[in-house]
Each structure stands twice: as structure tokens, then as C-alpha cells.
Amino acid sequence: MSDRISVHGRTVCITGSSSGMGRAIAEHLGALGATVYLMGRNAEPMEESKARIEAAGGKADLATFDVTDTAALQAWIQRAADETGRLDVMINNAGFGDFGTSFLGGDPDIWKGMLDVNVLALAVGDRARLDVAAVATPGELRAAHAAARREAKGATNHDWALDLLHKARSSASSPARGAG
Question: Taking burial as the number of CB atoms within 10 A of a residue's CB, which of 22, 33, 136, 146 is the most buried?
């Protein structure tokens, strides 16, 4: 039995989609027919991605806000589900790190920002996703995770991107039970 699922007609929310891996995944899934909700802090590249997605026949919407704004994040996810009648995939891609500084030279305010973006926003996004969509079966989760890995590999050629998706498997994707 194949674990390949189609993303055509599915709704995908992606935080941190104004650059890098999030942007590449958004454009790739949109080109495959997903309705993609892009979210980031920089509107211009997301407008470009939206145009590419729509030129390829997909649908896209974008929102510009800071992912640490929990009320905005929750409302955005709810809006995606309300507008499409479903939410199949939530990719919590927003994140940052302080990689150029040693621990002893690190700034606790930057660490707090990292925790707010990399941990709290991810948890808020996951919780909001679960609030709007039925919980998937374990088989659906495995199939969706495998599909997300394949789609990410198609969008990027970086092994680190696949490793990151693998580590974030519980937040990366899960189709809603009974959806499509």
C-alpha cells in the first residue's frame, strides 16, 4: 500500500513562508494544487510566491504578522479553515537562532525571542490547528508525514530540510479525518 497522498485541493498553512524553506515548500505545494496560506513578516516575497502559485494553477492567500502574536496566529489558522472548510496541513516553519555567538557572549533577550518563536509559536500553531481540524489516525499521520518529506525534497535539495521536517513531524502535517 502506498503512503503517497495528493495535496491537490488540500489546505496548507505555513508560517515563515516569506523566505527559505517555508517559501520553497509553499510554492511547491501550491504548484501541486494545494490552497496555501502563507504567513511571514515580509509581504513582498510572499506576494511573489502567491503570484507563482496562482500562475501554476494553485490558490494562495497571505498574511503579514509576527508569529509571536498568538491571537493573530490563532485567528489566521481559523480563517484558513473557515474559508476553505478544512485544514489539512500545518507547517510551523518560522524560526531563528543566534548561531554566531558563544553561549557566554549570548544575549538572554535574544534567547527569549528564540523561545517565543521556536517553541511557543510552534505550540500555539499546533494547538490552533487541532482546534479547527479533526485528529488524524496514526496511519494518516504516517502517510502525511511521508508525503510532506517527499514534497519538501522536491522543493529543496537540502538534507537538513528533510531532517528538520522529520524532527518536526508532529507539527508538520496531518490530514483531517474525513477530509477529501
Answer: 22
Residue pair 58/11 in contact by the 8 Å Cβ criterion: no
User: How many domains in the chain?
Assistant: 1
CA 51 to CA 4: how far, in whole Å?
Answer: 27
pTM of structure: 0.72
The C-alpha atoms of residue 145 and residue 172 are separated, in whole angstroms, by 7
- pLDDT, tens digit, 9 for 90 and up, residues 117-176: 999 999 999 888 888 875 445 555 555 555 555 555 554 443 434 443 444 443 444 444
> What is the C-alpha separation between 176 and 51, in angstroms, rounded?
27
- Establish if 178 belongs to a structural domain: no
Query: Who contacts 146 (Cβ-Cβ below 8 Å, separation ≥6)?
Result: 3, 4
Q: Which domain holds residue 84?
A: 11-172
Q: Which residues contact 63 (CB under 8 A, 6 or more apart)?
A: 37, 38, 39, 72, 76
Q: What is the pLDDT of residue 148?
A: 55
Cell numbers placing 59: 490558490
Most distant pair of Cα atoms in the chain: their distance: 52
